[in-house]
Each structure stands twice: as C-alpha cells, then as structure tokens.
Design goal:
This protein has helices at 2-46, 60-76, 94-104, 119-124, 132-136, 146-153, 177-183, 191-200, 225-234, 245-259, 272-280, 294-301, 335-346, 349-358, 365-368, 371-374, 377-385, 398-414, 420-432; strands at residues 49-55, 81-87, 111-114, 164-170, 172-175, 286-289, 306-308, 319-328, 361-362, 389-390. With 434 residues, the chain is of the alpha/beta class.
Length: 434
C-alpha cells in the first residue's frame, strides 16, 4: 500500500511539473512575441526607408530646385521614405558612363536621372528594373501621353518599359514676326507653305544685290540631324528606311533650300552656336531649336520673336524630342518606395515644381494645363508638338552616326559633292551597318 501511494504521488508531481513547465514555456513564447512586435513598431518611425538618387544639374539653380523637391518629398510622402540626393556632373555624357561603372561594381543608386540612349547598354547587363507592373497599377498612368510611353518602350527589343517619363524638350521653329510682316506672310500651316516661306523671307533688304536675310538657318554640323528629320518625315519618309523615295525627297528639299540660297553660305558647318547667333543677329528669319533658348531670345527681341510647331503634311509629321527620364535599378531593395519617388517626379508636386521653375516641358497632362505653363507661349508650342515628337533609332551605331557620319554626309550633299540619293544610301548603310 505504501508503494502504491508513493507511485501515485510521483505521478501527480510529474503532472504538476509538466503543467508548470508548459505555463512557463507559453508565457515565455508570449513574452517573446510581444517583445518582437514592440520592437518592430518602435523601429518604423526611427528607421526610414532610404533611397539614393543620382542627379546631374545643368546649373546651380537646378541643384537648388531639385534639393527643394527632395526636401518636400521627404516631408510629405507619408510612408517614411527618405531620398538622399547625389550630385554628379553631366561632363559631356561621362555621367552615364560613371553610372554604368557604379552599377556594374555593385554600387548602383536606387533611382537616377537618365537619357534613353543609354538604355540598351544598361539593360543588356540586367541593371534596370522593368516598370510595367508598377505603371499598370498606377493611378496616374493616363496622365502621360501613350505616345511617350511608346517612344520610351521602343529603345529596347524586349518590349519592356524601363524609363519613367520626367520632362522633355521639343524642337519647334523660332521666327521673327517683324520679318514675316515685311515679307507679307503669316505662320505657315503646311509643310509646302513652310518651304515657300523660306524663299519669300530670303531678301536683299538694302538693294545692294546681295542677300542679307536668309529664310531658314540650316544646322549642317553636329546636332543637325534632329531638325533635319522633320524634312524627311514631311515627305512620308522615316528613319526606318532612309533610302525610300519619300526619304530621298525630304533630303532633296533640305539640299534645295541651301543651294537655292535660302540659308547662309556657312550652313554646312553651322552648329548650335552659329544658328542661334545668325538668328539673333537678324541674318536668318527662322531656325529650329527648343525652349531652352527662349529666355535669351526674349531678352534679345522682346515680343519680336515667336514660335510655331513644325508644320503638318499629308505625308507625315515629326519633330525631335530631347528627353530626361528616371530609372529604377534592379539592385534596389526598396522598389515600391523607389516608384513612389519616381511618380512624384513624373506627375506629383515634383513635376510642377521642376517644370515651372526650370522651364522644362512637363510630361503630365495635368501640369501642362496649368496657367503657369499655358501662359508661356514657347511652352505651349512645345506641348503642341509633343504628340508627333520622336527620337532617332537607338542602336549601337547611333552615337558614331550622329557625331561623324551624319555631319560629313550632309556637308557633302549640301555642297553638291553627292546626290540626295547617294547621301541617303550612305546614311542608311552607316546607321544599320549594312
């Protein structure tokens, strides 16, 4: 009997100890769970999501404006996101090479200002994050023109969108209203009228038998491929096939303006500085450039300078779009936060601040309609040209074609050393490596 009682006591004691142990263990788990939860809650406010953004400024003013935008975003995003701005000089395009080197070395920022011509190099090395899924579910998606998305998507062959629109520079025609009045003409409504007006504006104003005002300032040197493209498309040609009859006809129009004396004799060698100097000196009545020159134009001429979009044609219409976008790097560990920042720049308060204060053309339809934008006549013309603005093909050959092949070929064509057909065959072969 005594043995049985002892055995029963042992069992009871064992059960009590087991129960006590389970209570302790449960309490420990609950205590641990509470401490983890508390720690998570306490860390959120004190440890923001930090994003690094690369930016190249064109001036000290641009740096100040961008920093003010960063400060505003950090204070207002409501998601504990903090952008840290890193300033890097453009340095003739070295910015893009420095960004590529940093990314390949594992030091990419989360986001960066970007030029679309660099996209193939970066995507070939899997450095950029596709933005399609973010944009498809983005409430502001339709605030940006479909044509712009299409243009940005076209720079790669995989049909993904890697570039977030930010701002553009659209080429248009600058003209002198007083010269139009003296020649008895209005702003041309068609491409054919534009060609006729180039001739009507070419005049000997002092009767000495020499032309002292030329109708159009041709840019035959580097950078001239952009305004030149408008002539090609106006005849129904395109960069896709520079040897088509339509493309050759557009080239012939371009040559004829020079050889008929409607552009200054220096045109084959004229670059940006020359075409602007010729226009501002009164030597030319029209030239093609973007809004970046408008402030200096107004300082020089006051109300005696205007602008119009390159005229329409039944065969086609095109103007060149300069670009600045933002990109997200695939190595970013905070992609949702990165897209918040990119969308702030594209359609949020950052879009308004940047475009109003710097004079860049907005990509947001909403911002385009703001009085500050609509009341700027050069901004209004830029926006008018945006739906038919495009870019050159982005290929491995493009940079050399722009810097070397195009200027040399155009100069030879303008000077009559080769025909329009020969020039276009050379340009097509060099661009597409045929």
């Amino acid at each position: 009997m005594g043995g049985k009682k002892m055995s029963g006591c042992k069992k009871a004691l064992t059960m009590i100890l087991a129960f006590a142990l389970s209570i302790t263990t449960l309490a420990g788990c609950q205590s641990g769970s509470q401490s983890i939860s508390s720690a998570a809650k306490s860390e959120n406010p004190s440890q923001p999501i930090v994003l690094k953004h690369w930016f190249w400024p064109d001036s000290d003013m641009h740096t100040q404006v961008m920093q003010s935008m960063v400060d505003d975003f950090n204070a207002t995003n409501g998601k504990n996101i903090k952008v840290e701005l890193e300033i890097h000089p453009w340095d003739g395009g070295q910015y893009s090479q420095d960004l590529f080197t940093a990314a390949m070395g594992g030091g990419a920022p989360d986001t960066a200002g970007f030029k679309l011509t660099s996209t193939p190099l970066f995507t070939a090395n899997h450095l950029l994050e596709p933005l399609d899924s973010y944009i498809d579910s983005w409430a502001d998606k339709d605030d940006i023109q479909d044509t712009l998305y299409k243009t940005l998507r076209s720079v790669t062959k995989d049909d993904y969108l890697y570039l977030m629109p930010w701002n553009t520079q659209i080429l248009y025609v600058y003209y002198r209203p007083s010269m139009f009045q003296a020649a008895g003409i209005d702003i041309p409504k068609t491409y054919e009228e534009f060609l006729q007006d180039c001739r009507k504006l070419t005049r000997d104003t002092n009767g000495d038998g020499k032309t002292d005002v030329y109708g159009y300032g041709i840019r035959g040197s580097k950078g001239g491929q952009e305004p030149w493209g408008s002539f090609i498309y106006a005849r129904g040609g395109s960069f896709d096939n520079l040897t088509s009859d339509a493309s050759i006809q557009g080239m012939q129009d371009f040559i004829d303006l020079f050889q008929d004396g409607c552009a200054p004799p220096s045109a084959p060698n004229d670059g940006f500085n020359e075409i602007i100097a010729n226009f501002q000196s009164g030597l030319t009545a029209m030239t093609i450039q973007h809004i970046g020159t408008s402030v200096n134009m107004v300082e020089k001429f006051g109300d005696d300078v205007g602008a119009f979009a390159f005229p329409d044609s039944p065969q086609g219409r095109w103007t060149s779009m300069g670009d600045t976008e933002t990109v997200m790097f695939s190595s970013s560990k905070n992609k949702e936060a990165a897209f918040e920042w990119m969308s702030y720049l594209a359609t949020g308060a950052g879009q308004k601040t940047w475009c109003v204060k710097t004079g860049n053309v907005p990509v947001s339809k909403t911002v385009q309609q703001m009085p500050e934008i609509q009341n700027n006549r050069f901004m209004k013309i830029s926006i008018e040209g945006a739906p038919f603005a495009g870019i050159l093909p982005v290929l491995d050959t493009t940079t050399d074609w722009i810097n070397n092949t195009w200027p040399a070929t155009i100069q030879a064509a303008l000077l009559g050393k080769i025909t329009a057909k020969e020039a276009m065959e050379q340009l097509d072969k060099a661009l597409y490596s045929k």
